[in-house]
Design brief:
mainly alpha
């Protein structure tokens, strides 16, 4: 196998892997979370539950 052919095959393989990894990352980022995003801690507001 000539060096030029080996370099071409290497570049094409690397580009295909990079595109596949990029598409995988995008798919992971667009996936919806399994649980709703609810806060673990809530604070009472100053005016709640108190008489004026």
């Amino acid at each position: 196998m000539s060096r030029l052919l080996a370099a071409t095959v290497t570049v094409v393989t690397a580009a295909a892997l990079a595109v596949g990894a990029a598409l995988g990352v995008v798919a992971l980022l667009e996936a919806s979370p399994e649980q709703p995003n609810t806060p673990l801690i809530t604070y009472e507001q100053a005016g709640e539950g108190s008489a004026p």
